[in-house]
Design brief:
The structure is a single chain. The protein is mainly α and 398 residues long. Helix content is 71%, strand content 0%.
């Protein structure tokens, strides 16, 4: 326990090995080939769109790209690798944690710089087409340098706030505004003030930084980071997410039907409860929405009947195999047994919910397919195939 750098080096290595294992299953040869083909199709459509797009459309897309870049740079999690038990066992080595931080800076900074440069070069064809920056490559390079410096300063400051202080939403909002404004000001060929704002924000937040490590806060932050990663991976492979978190989302309450006496009879007793759990349990509704958005992206870029059928059917396949474990997780919660109803009735209610949810998203995808391809005759095919797949997997649930 005397060498804190060895302890954290082991944790870093173990996380890399775990992620490498997940990546091996996720990025198999079929998916890699599919992604390469998709990337080529996106590039081709992007190039074709630039030739026909109006100025207002290009400016809108450019603004969206800059907003996405600013959002990612300001919300990307940093890695602390601190655990709750460290507050006890590593407390005597607290002063030596600075050695660990210095090794964590560089990978985080490199990752953020990569994302920034990627978005800048994706945006550059639009900037060039609009005639902004006078097609001056030196201005673009100065912007990249400014963004890189901003990333370095903000990353170091974020580490200090997470480990030695408190990282609040106000600070994240300020970083988002800084990145976005600096990008917009450069595109408009106005004075870049991002570095001044960064230095000002860093100075103002110095009062939140202490000399002692905030063990519990840093541990909770890193646990949240790992949980978000596992939820993303869980879209493709099973991962050990043991804790089921329930969170009320008021904006989704509109989807909940009003309670009445019908909700408490034997047939409908669990319909309401399963829908409530689906909307509030963190790893369900957004999982389906992410898959839905990916399916939309492929439908728009390929504009092909056969590819569209595969995408819609794949959406149902990936959704249903990821939603089935939800039933087992819900059976481990005490409220599942509060009403004396047979398991067959509960299972029937759960299957009904999954069928309704997937049917709604499938119909939306098919309607978008019809709008894009103008093909109504064959649109029933993916619906039938999706129903067959969903029923096949739902029958296995017991």
């Amino acid at each position: 326990m005397s060498n804190i750098t060895t302890i954290f080096s082991d944790r870093i290595i173990k996380e890399k090995e775990k992620r490498a294992t997940y990546n091996k299953y996720i990025f198999n040869s079929h998916l890699v080939m599919f992604l390469l083909i998709s990337f080529g199709a996106i590039l081709f459509n992007y190039s074709s769109w630039l030739d026909i797009a109006k100025n207002i459309e290009m400016k809108s897309v450019l603004l969206v790209l800059l907003i996405i870049m600013a959002y990612l740079l300001s919300t990307m999690k940093i890695k602390t690798f601190i655990k709750e038990a460290d507050s006890v066992f590593l407390l005597p080595l607290e002063n030596r944690y600075k050695e660990v931080i210095k090794k964590l800076y560089i990978p985080t900074i490199i990752t953020r710089i990569f994302f920034a440069i990627f978005f800048i070069f994706v945006s550059y064809p639009i900037i060039k087409k609009l005639g902004l920056l006078d097609n001056n490559i030196y201005v673009l390079l100065s912007f990249i340098v400014s963004i890189v410096v901003t990333i370095i300063i903000y990353t170091i400051q974020t580490y200090k706030l997470v480990i030695y202080g408190t990282l609040d939403n106000k600070y994240i909002a300020l970083t988002f505004v800084t990145y976005l404004l600096s990008s917009i000001l450069f595109v408009l060929e106005l004075l870049n003030i991002s570095l001044l704002v960064v230095l000002l924000v860093s100075y103002l937040y110095k009062k939140y930084i202490s000399v002692n490590v905030n063990w519990y806060g840093a541990a909770e932050y890193d646990s949240s980071r790992q949980e978000k990663y596992l939820k993303l991976v869980n879209m493709f492979v099973d991962v050990p997410i043991d804790v089921v978190k329930v969170k009320r989302r008021k904006y989704l309450d509109i989807l909940l039907p009003s309670l009445n006496e019908k909700n408490f009879n034997k047939e409908n007793s669990y319909n309401y409860y399963f829908l409530r759990a689906f909307l509030r349990q963190e790893n369900t509704i957004f999982l389906v929405l992410r898959l839905f958005l990916v399916a939309l992206l492929f439908l728009y870029n390929f504009n092909n009947m056969y590819v569209s059928f595969i995408v819609i059917v794949s959406f149902n396949y990936l959704s249903v195999i990821q939603l089935l474990p939800l039933y087992k997780r819900l059976t481990s919660i005490i409220w599942f047994y509060t009403i004396p109803v047979k398991n067959e009735v509960k299972l029937k209610s759960f299957k009904k919910l999954i069928n309704i949810v997937l049917a709604i998203f499938t119909i939306i995808l098919v309607l978008i397919y019809v709008i894009i391809t103008k093909d109504i005759i064959y649109s029933i095919i993916p619906i039938i195939l999706s129903l067959i797949i969903n029923n096949y997997f739902l029958k296995k649930l017991k």
